[in-house]
Every structure is written in structure tokens, then in C-alpha cells.
Amino acid sequence: MRIVYRVLSTAAFLMALLAARSAYGQGGATGAISGTVVDTSGGSVAGADVQIIDTRTETVVRKLPAGSDGSFVAPLLPPGTYSVVVNKSGFSQAKADGIEVRVTETTKVTITLKPGAVSEKVEISAQVATVDTTSATTGQSLGTETVRELPLATQNYQQLLTLSAGAQGELNAAAQLGRGSVKLFVNGQREDNNNYLIEGISATDYNVAQATYVPLPNPDVIQEFKVQTSLYDASQGRNGGGNVNAILKSGTRELHGDVYEFFRNDVLNANEYFLNRQGQPRPAIKQNIFGGSLGGPVVKENYGFF
């Protein structure tokens, strides 16, 4: 009986390893790049050397060969923008820039090689698949531009979580101060069924599990966040509701920073409709929040701080 149990356990372990290979290995705060190397006729190019370069630091973060069918997979990549460089004897070097990797997602690209000397370098526009066909997970990833451009009266990025399909919440009161009141309901489930992650690390209050008790990063340091609403895998959380994953910015090869003032004053606001009907004045709101950020390289530009 023990021998049978060991054989079954070993078989289950091997099956889990094979399944993990096909899942491209996205962790809680990472994504992946998968692709195919082809020639100008569309045929697969086997054995090409593929390099994945992080454009923030201009360093090579992955080196891998393409398979016999021209395919390659680079898993566990931090979210950001990458370049893919492909070399193969008898072909010119091909480089595709601006490959976006988003948290928990796999970006699929097709790299086309042209005949020529290896010393020749060709800048190409890779064919990037906009629909992820490798996962049934539903959800939406929102980046820095969205956080910066949309109005956040309380500077709480959680007010944007309801932009994802299947997520809903209460209307935000523009006159609120502090972090405001945010309630998130995903697919009709209770608020405490959600799971909150920051950089892939659980930030959920296991006693209450509501957004009110989750640590709140400044919107200026958020690179992107994603709300997964259903069908996410076991690496993403402990609850059956929404899975919220916030990714923070990191440094680049150049020193950069900014300063800001978040200014609110009742002189700039109109009175509320119901206060007007009751003949009451608009509430006093005077808020001045000053802040700043700084980022740059460390350790010979291989790492960064922010």
C-alpha cells in the first residue's frame, strides 16, 4: 500500500510540474513574454538566441534559445517595458522595442527575421497579441497614466478599482477628506471576500478584509494595478472574490524625480444640489498636500530605487 501511495504521489507531482510549464510561471507580481521566431515566409526559425532587455535599466534580464518550433517563453518578469533581441546565423539581428508586460499576464509576440549578416541590425515592429489566449482569468490592468489622469479627490487609487468589469462600489463623495470611503463588490460577493496584494505580498486585513484597512500607497508611486474578478489561479490569493494587485514603481538608469502640491479649496467648488435646496452654504474644504518622489540607479545601473 505504501509503495502504491508513493507511486501515485510521484505521478501527481510530475503532472503538476508539467502543468506549471504550460502556465508560463507568472507569480503574484510578475508577468511573462512568450513568442515565436519566424522568417519572412512565416516559417519557424529554430535555435535562435533570444534576449529580453529591461528598457528601464538597459540590462539583459533573460537569455534563452528558441525551441525547435521557434517558440520561446520568458516567465517571472517584473511588470514594465522590455525589448526583445533575436540573433540567428544567416539572419540579421532583429530588435523589437516597447513590449509591455503587465502583472499576471502573458504578452505574446511574433519576431520576424530577415536574411542577412548577423552584424546587420534591424529594428522591427513585433506583432503583439492584444488578447491573452493562455489564461481564462477575467480582469483589467490599469497603468500610471490612468491613475494620474483620472480625478482622485481623496488621492486613493482604490476609488478606481470599479473600472474593471464585474466590480462595483458606492459613489464617491467629492467632499470627503482623508482616504475616503471605498467599498468593492466583485460579482455580487461580499466586500470581505476580496484579496489585496502589494507587490504580490498579501496586504489584506485577515480580521476584517475590507479596503478600509488595507495599506494605501501614494498614487504617484503606483506603476499599475489589476483587479482579477474570476478564474485566477491558486498563486493569486486566498478568497473567492476579487483579487487586487498593486505594483509600485522602481528606479531607472537615470536620476529623476518630481514635486507636487495637491490643492483643494471650497472657493473652486460648486455647492451640492441638496444643500442649495435647503439654503445651506457649501461646506468648507481647504486641503494642501505637498509631496515628491525620487528615483535612480544603484549598483552600476543593474538595480534602481524609487
From TrEMBL:
Keyword list, A-Z: Cell outer membrane, Membrane, Signal, Transmembrane, Transmembrane beta strand, Transport
Listed InterPro entries: Carb-bd-like_fold, Oar-like_b-barrel, TonB-dep_rcpt-like
Keyword S-adenosyl-L-methionine annotated: no
Main location: membrane
Signal peptide: 1-25
GO CC field: cell outer membrane
Domain TonB-dependent transporter Oar-like beta-barrel positions: 247-305
Localization terms from the record: Cell outer membrane
Membrane topology: Multi-pass membrane protein
Entry GO MF terms: carbohydrate binding; carboxypeptidase activity
Annotated family: Belongs to the TonB-dependent receptor family.
Protein name: Carboxypeptidase regulatory-like domain-containing protein
